[in-house]
Structures are given as C-alpha cells and as structure tokens.
Design a protein that fits this description.
Blueprint (H helix, E strand, L loop, with lengths): L2 H23 L21 H34 L12 H14 L10 H17 L13 H16 L14 H9 L19 H8 L1
C-alpha cells in the first residue's frame, strides 16, 4: 500500500470516529407529552338516556304527524265545506263521519295527484289522536258512528292499490278487515277460508300487476 493510500485510510477513520463522537455527545431529544383524549368533545348516553331520547323523538314525530293530518283535513273543509266554521272536535259524529267519508275519497296532493294508501290511513289515525286528546268522546277508527268513513277509506285504499300505489308494490301487504269486506262485497274474493292468508300477494294483485305490465 502506498503512502498516499495510507494517509487516505487514516483520514477516513478519523472522520468516522469524529462523527460517532458527535452523535454520542448530542443532547437527548425532548420527549413530547402524551395527548389526552378530548372527552368534552363527546356526549356519553347511558341506557336510560338512550331510551329517553328515543321516546322524545317518537313523541315529536307523533305530534308532527297529528298536526299534519289535522291541517290537511281542515284545509279540505275550508275548500269543500266553506260554511263549516266549527273546530272539528265540535262537529257531531254524524256530520263528521260524512265529512271524513268525502275527504278520504276526494283528498289530493298539491299537484292534484293521489295520496299513497298508507298516507290516508296515517291521516285517519292522526285525526283520531287529535280528537281523543280534545276529549271528543268517539273514535273514528273504532266506533260504529264512523263506519261509513272507514268503509270509504278502505274502498279508497283498494282502488289506490289497484292503480299500483303503495311504497312496496311487490310486497305481501296485509289487508285490513274493511278492505277484505269491500273486496268480498265486490265479488273479487270469496270466503277467507278459500285463501288462507289475507295478503295482497295471496289475493293476486301482485300477479295481476306483473301481467298487466
């Protein structure tokens, strides 16, 4: 090995040693404090809180649905029975039943299209809740004084379903007793024992719709 090569090797060794010493003498890096989770960012709901929240939302939905149902019926009364100025809770059952019967058959949306069957049923239930809360003393869903309006609603639901109305047209939807009675009177179905199930699919509506399409 030549003298120049020896000098070059010694120079490299001295550089390595000096770098190691530099790193060994460096001060330690300061350790960063651990970041604590921000508990104030979140809300902790207990099982009781969860139940109360659900109940509160359900009550709000019920109140909103009731108000909507009453508002729609009152708008119909104002347009179609302009001389009727009494609150609906003050209208005697005989007259209110007639109003409701006409309303369920003739109600339309703002664009003049038909309502969905379940929407009309929800309106009926909403009006009934309002009347019960007002101390009306009669139920438009259960009492015989409102049999005519219930039959009209049932017939209207049947008609709408024949037109393909409904959120799930291909689902097996259970018919109400009033709807079954209407279909039986029209001769569309025979006795229930011949069918075994009171569903839309069993009665053939789904099959008829597919055939027509």
């Amino acid at each position: 090995m030549s003298a120049d090569e020896n000098l070059q090797e010694l120079f490299l060794l001295s550089q390595l040693l000096s770098d190691e010493e530099i790193f060994q003498n460096l001060p330690p890096e300061p350790s960063l404090p651990l970041q604590q989770p921000d508990q104030q960012r979140y809300v902790d709901y207990s099982a009781l809180d969860q139940a109360e929240f659900i109940e509160q939302q359900q009550k709000q939905n019920t109140v909103r649905n009731t108000n909507t149902a009453v508002k729609q019926f009152e708008q119909w009364l104002k347009a179609m029975r302009p001389t009727e100025n009494r609150p609906i809770s003050d209208i005697p059952p005989v007259e209110l039943d007639e109003y409701l019967a006409s309303y369920f058959l003739g109600a339309r949306q703002k664009d003049k299209s038909e309502y969905e069957p379940d929407t009309l049923t929800n309106y009926q239930r909403g009006i009934d809740r309002f009347l019960q809360d007002s101390g009306y003393g009669h139920s438009i869903i259960r009492d015989k004084e409102f049999e005519k309006s219930r039959k009209c609603l049932a017939a209207k639901r049947v008609s709408l379903k024949k037109q393909g109305k409904g959120n799930k047209p291909n689902a097996a939807e259970r018919l109400t007793d009033e709807e079954i009675k209407i279909l039986t009177e029209q001769g569309i179905i025979g006795s229930l024992t011949q069918c075994g199930q009171t569903t839309r699919r069993c009665l053939g509506f789904a099959a008829d719709k597919k055939t027509d399409s």
